[in-house]
Amino acid sequence: MLYLKIVMGSNFFLDAITLTIFGMGFVFVFLALLVVVTNLMSLLVAKIQHTINDAALLNSNSITELDEKTRAIIEAAIKMHTKR
Fold first, then answer.
1. CA distance 43 to 6
2. CA distance 17 to 33
3. Are the C-beta atoms of residues 74 and 66 closer than 8 Å to each other?
4. Fewest CB within a 10 Å sphere: which of 29, 52, 77, 82?
């Protein structure tokens, strides 16, 4: 009878260890897959963003001319800042 209790007790212990190992393995695989997918999405978004920025830069006429008063104010501010 005592032998039966020891064998059943170790069987439960073995089941608990097996369940723990499978659970930790599942979490590890899930997190590793999450890291890989996140890195791939980051590369994809960076590539798309780079393409969009290049296209917007080629199509936009964002260079604006400053009038003389604004240019003088900016130059005076830069000179005051560099004198510090």
1. 56
2. 24
3. yes
4. 82
